Amino acid sequence: MASNSLGQIFRITTAGESHGPSMGVIIDGCPPGIQVETAFIQQELNRRRPGQSDITTQRNEPDNCSIVSGVYEGKTTGAPILILIQNKDQQSSDYDHIETSFRPSHADYTYFKKYGVRDHRGGGRSSARETANWVAAGAVAKLVLKTQGIQIHAGVTGVGALTTSIDPIDLDWAHTEQNSVRCPDPEMAIQMQSLIEEIRDKGDTVGGVITCVINGCPAGLGEPVFHKMHADLAKAMLTINASKGFEYGSGFKAASMRGSEHNDVWEKTDSGEKTRTNYSGGIQGGITNGMPIYFRVAFKPVSTLMTDQTSIDAEGNEITIAGKGRHDPCVVPRAVPIVEALAAIVLADHVLMGRVWG
Amino acid sequence: MASNSLGQIFRITTAGESHGPSMGVIIDGCPPGIQVETAFIQQELNRRRPGQSDITTQRNEPDNCSIVSGVYEGKTTGAPILILIQNKDQQSSDYDHIETSFRPSHADYTYFKKYGVRDHRGGGRSSARETANWVAAGAVAKLVLKTQGIQIHAGVTGVGALTTSIDPIDLDWAHTEQNSVRCPDPEMAIQMQSLIEEIRDKGDTVGGVITCVINGCPAGLGEPVFHKMHADLAKAMLTINASKGFEYGSGFKAASMRGSEHNDVWEKTDSGEKTRTNYSGGIQGGITNGMPIYFRVAFKPVSTLMTDQTSIDAEGNEITIAGKGRHDPCVVPRAVPIVEALAAIVLADHVLMGRVWG
Amino acid sequence: MASNSLGQIFRITTAGESHGPSMGVIIDGCPPGIQVETAFIQQELNRRRPGQSDITTQRNEPDNCSIVSGVYEGKTTGAPILILIQNKDQQSSDYDHIETSFRPSHADYTYFKKYGVRDHRGGGRSSARETANWVAAGAVAKLVLKTQGIQIHAGVTGVGALTTSIDPIDLDWAHTEQNSVRCPDPEMAIQMQSLIEEIRDKGDTVGGVITCVINGCPAGLGEPVFHKMHADLAKAMLTINASKGFEYGSGFKAASMRGSEHNDVWEKTDSGEKTRTNYSGGIQGGITNGMPIYFRVAFKPVSTLMTDQTSIDAEGNEITIAGKGRHDPCVVPRAVPIVEALAAIVLADHVLMGRVWG
Amino acid sequence: MASNSLGQIFRITTAGESHGPSMGVIIDGCPPGIQVETAFIQQELNRRRPGQSDITTQRNEPDNCSIVSGVYEGKTTGAPILILIQNKDQQSSDYDHIETSFRPSHADYTYFKKYGVRDHRGGGRSSARETANWVAAGAVAKLVLKTQGIQIHAGVTGVGALTTSIDPIDLDWAHTEQNSVRCPDPEMAIQMQSLIEEIRDKGDTVGGVITCVINGCPAGLGEPVFHKMHADLAKAMLTINASKGFEYGSGFKAASMRGSEHNDVWEKTDSGEKTRTNYSGGIQGGITNGMPIYFRVAFKPVSTLMTDQTSIDAEGNEITIAGKGRHDPCVVPRAVPIVEALAAIVLADHVLMGRVWG
Fold first, then answer.
1. Whole-structure pTM over 0.90, yes or no?
2. Chain B neighbours, 3+ Cβ pairs < 8 A
3. Does residue B116 sit at the D interface (CB-CB below 8 Å)?
4. Could you give the number of structural domains in chain B?
5. Residue A30, in any domain of the structure
6. C228-263 pLDDT, tens per residue?
7. Structural domain includes residue B210
């Protein structure tokens, strides 16, 4: 059934497989008068694209995008915005060896069970190439949020056992784009880079964690009871390929805390009401309280290895799958712009929802 | 804006505040011919209701429910099912002292900022009383799932620093309803009970973790890319009051794992295809693979304390909020049926979505 | 599947059968701060209720309504509003004779084919009793529209071959509630009343037409391309039991007109832009243009007759259905408040949609 | 707000303006395994395209389409289908003279009031060019329906005062594509052709009526109470540019009929249950009854004339708009494939909705 749309008021609908001519996304509900330049969308896509550094897949996709509709003389018109992103470096033959087999921990088996047919080249709709659509739409969402003074920053805060000890709120986002790992803690970034290289050289892969902080968000966004801000964020984040968990504010740590230490006490300051601590992560009862929003997303290690693995084929026969293809040793550096994009789409949707009642 | 509906095909719409005459939920899209007895819905509500044990709030709500429509001669007719749950033991005066103040880490502040008006008695729609609607609807969803052989079990696996060491798949759910904590590990249950009592006696509260396992789910459920099974589960779980995080399968632990250890290798067995390990948590690419689904939900400590706290009022003046009211020292024992109910609603929705192309 | 909700932002979800304890409607998305009195809702329900005059069914339903949630101290809070309407004068035995037969031009046959089960008493969800839910929700919608200066008036303009010759825009709505037919043309009302009585006395029924005019609607409401104002109105009107057609502005007459006579020429007046004629019916390209909106809805004659009819039973055997029950000889007088209610719900939804980019 | 999607399970989302590089439509929810050839989509587009005969606009748009995604080796995969339709013969300068003026009975004024900006070239999203998206998506829907044995035929049955006297059910659809008017009554087609030519030569335009008949539809499709089959059809038809009214079965004529003549009496035949008459138009209580569905759609005369008209500009000054551009003297011949396409989309959606409950 129809399930390729996200959002209520600001809604994206996506299409495309990695081995067709292009990906495509329609952004419906973008307000008129927003300044949109292709260059900015392209810049965001470049942060996601393969082959951007020595710790990402060496596949080479320029990810050229074009705006087909909805923008006139550099501004949105209120009409739906169709963006196309070209597919280019498709090596479909890379996938011949899995045409009849199910790779471990991939979606090969489940897609086959669900749809009965299989476009095995690149995984069809289960391919992470779909995330290019999200990044393009997220770029437009960021431009909507910019008019409201809302900024979204994400960065890698964990790779394998390595984790930054800096508090999310204190992270200096200026560092993120200065290293290949996209870690906002520059010292940790060096260690993470070494770890990823070491694992890559063994033909193995490793998981990681991305932290996202949203600043400038006014109090009052979020729609109880079934469009709570953090619930919509959780859904969006768990939609990202390879993500395994979501927590906001104190997160899983809250489970071991006492109410007397966890409660965020309100106080009046010169710049308005604030809470002394922010275990709530900027959201209370599903509605933003004006404090910074922050959340963490866990990612599993990439399933495609450069070493041989055993599995089964469609008839259930045991087979060996050779390590092949061009894949990332660690997914999180390239997932940073994806986390930001989906967060931006959710926030833009909530900003517009918040306007309904003035 | 309208935001009180959950689900696409099997969809619930809820209404009611804790201090009105009753709560109400409309279950729309329930297939005809499902056997539904009020007694089963009541039994599920009893698991959630206050005053059920010495470690829950002493408020006394019998939570009597009645089916108003959609069921004829004990079976669903395909028409929408309206269920009412009476409110009874309302001590609105308990809330007089917070009429003009914002309790720390509650939704008082954010609801006021959003809606401009405040039904301060019991928190209005932010009250956990809303979860009675979900449990009633979840009971109907469970009856739909029963016809498909799908079972859902949840239990408390963490309270404060106490955590069971039993693997989710190995938990013996028969134990869950035999202790007040609803912990499926009976030895750990005793320790948890002591901890909660100790904390309650100090007027403090503590957080916890609930684990949920879904058995009997066939391969092929889940609708990429924006209705992935685990993303819909995440959204539902984060909708529960006081929840702070969600992880499925390997969860946050996956972030520190290698691909070579994390991959779930397929093998053929006498009872069909299986994976040797189940780090995927029964879901790959957002679609179920026939293995057990399991996930964990983190809950923060209840914000209402029996001790005094400082805060501000609507004018921003610093005030002291006295410890008062009747609240749970730990939310997780009563949240177990809520987790099950929302999981059942999500699963029933996906079972029906799966039929569209069946 | 779930199909008992109408609207995007201001959305109603309904439940209830004529022979259960009550009907119920949840109004989700009503802005906070709207003054809502049960008395006004009751007054609207009284306009729809059976037994109100000698040309309507003699069934006696007081249609007592109660507001269960979402209103606090006389004002909406932004929470969903649940309204219950009691069922009372149920003579289920009236329907015993059709338990196994399909009445001509009723929904008996199609409901049985679709749902497999049949709550034959009063037609289940196909009963016009459902419209009580719409009228209650429409009353709330009218109160939302009142704050925007938008007024909705409907009246009977055709019964059988009798049709008023007054232009919709020139109708004097003060007359509508002064006659049993609800015809805003008092002279025609007398003829219509005679015709309905004559037909009723023969045990027969007759169809009719309702015209609706909406004044005070600002330019700019309507959401192309799939939520055009008139398309949403058409859908709502065709949802009403027994309705067979919808036309707005020039309607079917436009098919035989020339562009040179049909075009509405813009001119500037002291009170803003106006069109000289209004064949557009206040809507151009799916968006309101500030002129009065008007449309007509056709209703078929009621299918239940007081004379015997032949038909078949579930096994396909030919049977005779005796004329029985208590039904209206002409549906349009009681359908007037229903047309207004659904128009109000559509307009309230569009007013709120219009704010998103406001 | 987002409003460019139609359908629940089989859902289309559209984008594009007449003066951008292309139109684009995403068809989401199309079942896997449906045979789809570009040639068939192109053939349907050719029926809609301008310049196809001497009584349509002389604009020349080849309307070349391409399938970007969702089809693999000639069959749908269950993934969303993106179709692009090239724009080519854009004479944007044709619209220079209306850059600051509002054409009578166009959407110029209302779009400007709503969006604040204006892409005046070709009317932006209000352009009938959008209907190319619908026809492309409708072609795919027809292929879905073909697997179910459902056929949809539409034809022109009225132009100006000329109307065929043949009963909808008796129309011979083989004639439709054999004349430029697309009238299934060949004798009437000749008269209609003459009338349109005569009106065209005067620089004027004329309205018309399209009748649509759906055969092979099983009983049981339609989802009360807010997705009744005919209500969804009405909404879709009223979405078509220039449409002013919709009626199904007996339609507006029902208003003047008696119940005793209007009731469709059931009888058992060798080929199953049938009704002797079909005033119900194949739908009872919003659900199909297995009899042919038929409905009529009224279209107003095209607003763009080849003669001068007065109007106002954005400042409210009175101006004269010269007759210019290339437009159809009568919209209905080219609207026939559009009516069929939207009917097919609605039916495909309902076929899939009908599967939810098996």
1. yes
2. A, C, D
3. no
4. 1
5. yes
6. 999 999 999 999 999 999 999 999 999 999 999 999
7. yes
